[in-house]
Automatic annotation (TrEMBL):
PilX/PilW C-terminal domain span: 104-197
UniProt name for this protein: Type 4 fimbrial biogenesis protein PilX N-terminal domain-containing protein
One Pfam family in the UniProt entry: PilX
Ranges where the Type 4 fimbrial biogenesis protein PilX N-terminal domain occurs: 10-60
Amino acid sequence: MKSCSHRRQGGAVLLIALVMLLLLTLLAVTSMRETTLQNRVGGNVSEQKRAYNAAESALREAERRLSALRGTVMFNSASAGFDSCTTSANTLAPTVENLCILSDGKDLDTQAKVQAWAKIALQTLSDAPAENSVGYRGFDGESRYRLAPRWVVTFIAGSASPNPSEALSGKGSYYYRVTAVARSGGARFPVILQSIVKLEVQ
Protein backbone atom coordinates (compact mmCIF):
# COMPACT_ATOMS: atom_id res chain seq x y z
CA MET A 1 0.00 0.00 0.00
CA LYS A 2 2.74 2.39 0.89
CA SER A 3 4.65 1.81 -2.34
CA CYS A 4 1.50 2.54 -4.36
CA SER A 5 0.98 5.80 -2.42
CA HIS A 6 4.56 6.90 -3.16
CA ARG A 7 4.06 6.23 -6.87
CA ARG A 8 0.87 8.31 -6.92
CA GLN A 9 2.58 11.19 -5.11
CA GLY A 10 5.55 11.05 -7.52
CA GLY A 11 3.17 11.13 -10.49
CA ALA A 12 1.25 14.06 -9.00
CA VAL A 13 4.49 16.01 -8.41
CA LEU A 14 5.57 15.39 -12.00
CA LEU A 15 2.18 16.55 -13.31
CA ILE A 16 2.26 19.72 -11.17
CA ALA A 17 5.83 20.44 -12.31
CA LEU A 18 4.80 20.10 -15.97
CA VAL A 19 1.80 22.41 -15.46
CA MET A 20 4.04 25.00 -13.73
CA LEU A 21 6.58 24.75 -16.56
CA LEU A 22 3.79 25.27 -19.10
CA LEU A 23 2.51 28.33 -17.22
CA LEU A 24 6.02 29.82 -17.00
CA THR A 25 6.50 29.26 -20.74
CA LEU A 26 3.19 30.99 -21.51
CA LEU A 27 4.14 33.93 -19.29
CA ALA A 28 7.53 34.24 -21.00
CA VAL A 29 5.99 34.15 -24.49
CA THR A 30 3.34 36.73 -23.53
CA SER A 31 6.01 38.99 -22.04
CA MET A 32 8.12 38.72 -25.20
CA ARG A 33 5.12 39.59 -27.37
CA GLU A 34 4.33 42.66 -25.25
CA THR A 35 7.95 43.81 -25.42
CA THR A 36 8.01 43.36 -29.21
CA LEU A 37 4.74 45.28 -29.56
CA GLN A 38 6.06 48.12 -27.36
CA ASN A 39 9.22 48.32 -29.47
CA ARG A 40 7.17 48.50 -32.65
CA VAL A 41 4.89 51.19 -31.25
CA GLY A 42 7.91 53.14 -29.99
CA GLY A 43 9.57 52.83 -33.40
CA ASN A 44 6.43 54.06 -35.18
CA VAL A 45 6.11 57.04 -32.82
CA SER A 46 9.77 57.89 -33.40
CA GLU A 47 9.35 57.68 -37.19
CA GLN A 48 6.26 59.92 -37.05
CA LYS A 49 8.13 62.48 -34.93
CA ARG A 50 10.96 62.57 -37.46
CA ALA A 51 8.48 63.03 -40.30
CA TYR A 52 6.65 65.78 -38.39
CA ASN A 53 9.90 67.65 -37.67
CA ALA A 54 10.96 67.39 -41.31
CA ALA A 55 7.57 68.64 -42.57
CA GLU A 56 7.59 71.52 -40.09
CA SER A 57 11.12 72.52 -41.11
CA ALA A 58 10.07 72.53 -44.77
CA LEU A 59 6.96 74.58 -43.94
CA ARG A 60 8.95 77.21 -42.02
CA GLU A 61 11.57 77.43 -44.77
CA ALA A 62 8.86 77.98 -47.39
CA GLU A 63 7.35 80.75 -45.25
CA ARG A 64 10.77 82.35 -44.83
CA ARG A 65 11.49 82.31 -48.56
CA LEU A 66 8.06 83.72 -49.39
CA SER A 67 8.60 86.57 -46.91
CA ALA A 68 12.04 87.22 -48.40
CA LEU A 69 10.46 87.72 -51.84
CA ARG A 70 8.09 90.41 -50.53
CA GLY A 71 10.71 93.14 -50.38
CA THR A 72 12.11 92.55 -53.88
CA VAL A 73 11.30 94.00 -57.30
CA MET A 74 10.23 90.52 -58.46
CA PHE A 75 7.32 90.34 -56.04
CA ASN A 76 4.87 92.33 -58.15
CA SER A 77 5.21 90.04 -61.18
CA ALA A 78 5.47 86.81 -59.13
CA SER A 79 2.83 87.50 -56.48
CA ALA A 80 -0.01 85.71 -58.32
CA GLY A 81 2.06 82.56 -58.84
CA PHE A 82 3.12 80.40 -61.78
CA ASP A 83 1.84 77.35 -63.66
CA SER A 84 4.53 75.01 -62.31
CA CYS A 85 7.22 74.84 -59.66
CA THR A 86 9.97 74.45 -62.24
CA THR A 87 8.92 77.72 -63.93
CA SER A 88 8.61 79.45 -60.56
CA ALA A 89 11.99 78.23 -59.27
CA ASN A 90 13.80 79.15 -62.50
CA THR A 91 12.18 82.60 -62.73
CA LEU A 92 12.80 83.49 -59.08
CA ALA A 93 16.25 81.87 -58.78
CA PRO A 94 18.19 85.17 -59.07
CA THR A 95 16.09 86.66 -56.25
CA VAL A 96 15.10 83.79 -53.91
CA GLU A 97 16.52 80.34 -54.50
CA ASN A 98 14.23 77.31 -54.89
CA LEU A 99 10.91 79.12 -54.32
CA CYS A 100 7.72 77.69 -55.79
CA ILE A 101 4.54 79.77 -55.92
CA LEU A 102 1.63 78.30 -57.86
CA SER A 103 -1.39 80.27 -59.08
CA ASP A 104 -4.76 80.25 -57.30
CA GLY A 105 -6.12 77.67 -59.75
CA LYS A 106 -3.76 75.16 -58.16
CA ASP A 107 -4.59 76.05 -54.56
CA LEU A 108 -4.76 73.03 -52.22
CA ASP A 109 -7.97 74.12 -50.52
CA THR A 110 -9.61 70.71 -50.00
CA GLN A 111 -8.53 67.51 -48.27
CA ALA A 112 -8.79 65.56 -51.54
CA LYS A 113 -6.48 68.01 -53.35
CA VAL A 114 -3.96 67.92 -50.50
CA GLN A 115 -3.91 64.10 -50.44
CA ALA A 116 -3.51 63.89 -54.21
CA TRP A 117 -0.71 66.48 -54.14
CA ALA A 118 1.11 64.69 -51.30
CA LYS A 119 0.97 61.35 -53.10
CA ILE A 120 2.54 62.81 -56.24
CA ALA A 121 5.06 64.92 -54.31
CA LEU A 122 6.37 61.96 -52.30
CA GLN A 123 6.99 59.97 -55.47
CA THR A 124 9.62 62.53 -56.47
CA LEU A 125 12.94 61.02 -55.42
CA SER A 126 15.22 63.98 -56.07
CA ASP A 127 15.12 67.24 -54.12
CA ALA A 128 15.01 69.33 -57.32
CA PRO A 129 11.89 71.33 -58.24
CA ALA A 130 9.21 69.15 -59.83
CA GLU A 131 5.95 70.08 -61.53
CA ASN A 132 4.03 70.70 -58.30
CA SER A 133 6.53 70.73 -55.42
CA VAL A 134 10.03 71.64 -54.30
CA GLY A 135 12.36 69.50 -52.22
CA TYR A 136 13.53 70.79 -48.84
CA ARG A 137 17.32 70.83 -48.46
CA GLY A 138 17.59 72.42 -45.05
CA PHE A 139 18.06 76.04 -44.04
CA ASP A 140 21.57 76.03 -45.47
CA GLY A 141 20.52 74.32 -48.70
CA GLU A 142 23.05 71.55 -48.09
CA SER A 143 21.07 69.04 -46.01
CA ARG A 144 20.14 65.71 -47.56
CA TYR A 145 17.28 63.40 -46.63
CA ARG A 146 16.70 59.83 -47.70
CA LEU A 147 13.12 60.87 -48.49
CA ALA A 148 13.23 64.63 -49.02
CA PRO A 149 10.31 66.61 -47.56
CA ARG A 150 8.40 68.50 -50.26
CA TRP A 151 6.57 71.81 -50.11
CA VAL A 152 4.64 74.26 -52.23
CA VAL A 153 3.18 77.76 -51.87
CA THR A 154 -0.14 78.52 -53.55
CA PHE A 155 -1.66 81.94 -54.10
CA ILE A 156 -5.09 82.30 -52.48
CA ALA A 157 -6.13 85.92 -53.04
CA GLY A 158 -4.92 89.48 -53.01
CA SER A 159 -6.47 92.85 -52.35
CA ALA A 160 -4.78 95.82 -53.96
CA SER A 161 -4.34 99.15 -52.25
CA PRO A 162 -7.30 101.54 -52.82
CA ASN A 163 -4.81 104.11 -54.09
CA PRO A 164 -4.46 103.47 -57.88
CA SER A 165 -0.77 104.40 -58.04
CA GLU A 166 0.02 102.12 -55.08
CA ALA A 167 -2.05 99.32 -56.60
CA LEU A 168 -0.01 99.54 -59.83
CA SER A 169 3.20 99.15 -57.84
CA GLY A 170 1.85 96.00 -56.20
CA LYS A 171 1.00 97.44 -52.80
CA GLY A 172 -1.75 95.66 -50.87
CA SER A 173 -2.46 92.43 -48.99
CA TYR A 174 -1.64 88.99 -50.38
CA TYR A 175 -2.67 85.62 -48.97
CA TYR A 176 -0.84 82.35 -49.55
CA ARG A 177 -1.25 78.75 -48.45
CA VAL A 178 1.95 76.88 -47.63
CA THR A 179 1.76 73.07 -47.72
CA ALA A 180 4.55 70.68 -46.70
CA VAL A 181 4.70 66.89 -46.61
CA ALA A 182 7.25 64.44 -45.22
CA ARG A 183 7.50 60.74 -44.63
CA SER A 184 10.20 59.08 -42.58
CA GLY A 185 11.86 55.75 -43.38
CA GLY A 186 9.42 53.00 -42.50
CA ALA A 187 6.40 55.22 -41.79
CA ARG A 188 3.44 54.31 -43.97
CA PHE A 189 1.50 57.52 -43.49
CA PRO A 190 2.95 60.93 -44.39
CA VAL A 191 2.76 64.03 -42.24
CA ILE A 192 1.08 66.96 -44.02
CA LEU A 193 1.17 70.48 -42.59
CA GLN A 194 -0.41 73.69 -43.88
CA SER A 195 -0.30 77.35 -42.91
CA ILE A 196 -1.78 80.58 -44.24
CA VAL A 197 0.60 83.49 -44.76
CA LYS A 198 -0.53 87.09 -45.17
CA LEU A 199 1.96 89.47 -46.77
CA GLU A 200 1.44 93.21 -46.51
CA VAL A 201 3.24 95.16 -49.22
CA GLN A 202 3.42 98.90 -48.49
